[in-house]
Design a protein that fits this description.
The chain is mostly helical. The chain is built from eleven helices and no strands. The chain has helices spanning 2-7, 10-15, 20-26, 42-55, 59-71, 75-79, 81-94, 101-118, 124-130, 138-146, 159-173. Helix 8 (101-118) runs antiparallel to helix 9. It is globular and about 50 Å long. The mean pLDDT is 86.
Length: 178
């Protein structure tokens, strides 16, 4: 994906969008698909992005425009179900609704919020911590629920909780910590 982004940067993509077949052919033989879940196949992701770019070619500008409304809300407001749902819908519109559900949540946490943080949006960290968990390994979600974490009113499963638990698991497995 990084090579595709280098070959077709955003201005070039807007000017002369490549077809899905051209994108796939450009990396034929380079895709590492072993161990990938079916939803992570490059063709699926590239198809989403080509649809997204055809509907919202100025998505970075729209992402920047979202900062103002988000920055006006407190962390408590952004944690409310209705505010997060509204923010989720706004992020979905940035993709032309080509990406939705847990995939959108993962994109928000792994893509949009880091981009906004790099541009100086100082609320991105809190939003990242409190955001929906996105795609997480089922065993992780099950374990957190068995530990009575991330469930019930006022204690939702969040990206921050999942990432913190993953970090703790990695630390426990790291040979240098033994």
């Amino acid at each position: 994906m990084a090579r595709i982004a280098d070959r077709w940067p955003l201005p070039l993509w807007r000017e002369n969008p490549p077809s899905l077949d051209i994108l796939m052919d450009s990396e034929r033989g380079n895709w590492a698909q072993q161990g990938s879940r079916p939803a992570n196949l490059p063709r699926v992701r590239l198809d989403q992005y080509t649809r997204w770019m055809s509907v919202v070619p100025n998505w970075p500008d729209r992402l920047d425009a979202l900062v103002g409304p988000l920055a006006k809300r407190s962390r408590v407001q952004l944690r409310s179900r209705s505010e997060r749902a509204a923010a989720r819908a706004a992020f979905g519109e940035i993709t032309g609704n080509a990406v939705g559900g847990s995939r959108l949540d993962t994109l928000v946490c792994d893509g949009f919020l880091p981009l906004l943080a790099a541009r100086g949006f100082n609320c991105a960290e809190n939003l990242w911590l409190d955001w929906y968990p996105g795609d997480q390994p089922p065993v992780l979600v099950r374990t957190l629920r068995e530990l009575d974490l991330g469930q019930g009113h006022g204690r939702p499963l969040t990206n921050g909780l999942c990432q913190g638990f993953l970090g703790w698991l990695i630390e426990q497995d790291c040979p240098s910590n033994r």
